[in-house]
TrEMBL record:
Species of the source: Fibrella forsythiae
Signal peptide extent: 1-16
Zinc-finger among keywords: no
Protein's name in the database: Nuclear transport factor 2 family protein
Superkingdom of origin organism: Bacteria
């Protein structure tokens, strides 16, 4: 019986080990996220596009009068909107966040507040999915929430 229990839990133990992160991996993932936010601050559409992997998705969870839906925006449209701003107009202020990694896949859950021209417009959370391509972390997907801040 003990052997059977050990065999059942052994895969869980090895999975848990792959979910641990190293400081170097965390820094590389945070850099990919920071590159996006720096591109936004600089109103640099090229930098914003470069933060994303090919085929990446950008979505927002909306709740209108109790009806929840998900709105999808193309990365190209998002980068274009960022490029129309003036440097310094867009500032996403992030809170401490959690990173989980399994091989070449990572997630980062990031609470934020979004400022436009120095005024808080909304806040919420970003859920990033990142993939490591040829040693470089790229954003594969972001889904976020948006609400009025207190």
């Amino acid at each position: 019986m003990k052997t059977l229990l050990l065999l059942l839990f052994l895969p869980l133990a090895s999975f848990a080990q792959t979910m641990e992160t190293t400081p170097q991996e965390d820094v590389a993932i945070m850099q990919a996220v920071d590159d996006l936010f720096e591109g936004m601050k600089k109103a640099d559409s090229s930098a914003v596009k470069a933060a994303f992997a090919s085929g990446a998705t950008l979505q927002t969870v909306t709740n209108t009068a109790g009806f929840v839906s998900v709105r999808t925006e193309s990365i190209s449209d998002f980068a274009s909107q960022v490029g129309k701003a003036k440097p310094g107009d867009l500032n996403e202020i992030i809170q401490p966040y959690q990173i989980q990694i399994d091989g070449d896949l990572a997630t980062a859950f990031i609470p934020y507040s979004f400022n436009y021209k120095g005024k808080t417009v909304h806040c919420g959370a970003n859920a990033f999915t990142l993939v490591r391509f040829n040693g470089v972390w790229k954003i594969q997907a972001i889904i976020d929430t948006r609400r009025k801040c207190l």
